[in-house]
Design a protein that fits this description.
The protein is an alpha/beta fold. Helix content is 37%, strand content 23%. The N terminus is likely disordered.
């Protein structure tokens, strides 16, 4: 497939996008005199996996935190179309408490929500199910220092899922891991998302990796350097599983690399 055919196909696929679930409208985020995000507009539809891609320090993580209402907006707005939407957040580091077991770390958000009260057997059972889902059912009594980096990130993923979110926000969750472990966890994340075993239907992920964005996502939002502005919103309608070296994903990767280099 040549570049012209690919571009035509990408333009055509935007017509079939689902109804917006999250809308970013004329967004500006600033910290004192530093503008992190400027005049940003795009939507995320229900059921989509969308990656945010751009140079280091361009405001990707800030955007994710803005969606989660963790940072204030200078202007514009972020609209969640469903007022009952449950949102989960997974940070760059696992942030596990070293004195708590794997099971207790997963249950921490539940305890916080309960105001420190003892969790009931239903929550315990759900936490165990989340750990089985991320293939850590045999490590519920282990402490963080007894787990590898990849296993700690699995615990963090289970903790993000314990609240049964509809939308999961991922701030480069596997970026610090070796390539092999990262690929395994990416496959695990796609499996959980597609399984139907949870309420989860929409994912927004920050990444620095162009191949990761293309192989994981339905769409890639390409941003400029700070302040973050939209370069292009690209549909990736390739069948899964994908490999970066395959012809169509490979062409999209090359196209995005050229955009990022030109938009720094």
């Amino acid at each position: 497939m040549n570049a012209i055919t690919l571009a035509t196909r990408l333009e055509a696929t935007t017509l079939s996008r689902p109804e917006p679930l999250v809308s970013i409208e004329n967004l500006q985020v600033r910290f004192d005199d530093v503008v992190a995000i400027e005049n940003l507009n795009f939507t995320v539809g229900r059921g989509e996996f969308v990656s945010l891609l751009g140079p280091s320090g361009c405001g990707k993580s800030t955007l994710l935190k803005a969606i989660a209402r963790l940072v204030p907006l200078a202007s514009g707005r972020i609209v969640l179309r469903d007022p009952n939407l449950r949102v989960g957040f997974m940070f760059q580091k696992p942030l596990l408490l070293p004195w708590r077991t794997t099971l207790d770390n997963v249950l921490l958000p539940v305890e916080i929500q309960l105001g420190g009260n003892v969790v009931d057997p239903t929550d315990q059972s759900r936490a165990r199910r989340m750990l089985n889902m991320v293939q850590l059912g045999d490590f519920i009594d282990a402490y963080p220092h007894q787990l590898s980096g990849g296993m700690q990130q699995r615990v963090a993923l289970a903790r993000a899922l314990i609240g049964d979110p509809d939308v999961l926000l991922l701030d480069e969750p596997f970026g610090a891991l070796d390539e092999f472990t990262r690929d395994v966890l990416n496959e695990e994340l796609i499996r959980i998302w597609q399984s139907g075993d949870t309420r989860l239907h929409t994912i927004i992920m920050v990444t620095h990796s162009i191949p990761e964005a293309v192989t994981m996502s339905d769409r890639v939002i390409v941003l400029t350097g700070r302040p973050a502005r939209l370069i292009e919103d690209i549909d990736v309608h390739c069948s899964r599983p994908r490999a970066p070296e395959e012809s169509e994903p490979g062409l999209i990767i090359k196209r995005i690399r050229a955009m990022v280099r030109g938009g720094r």
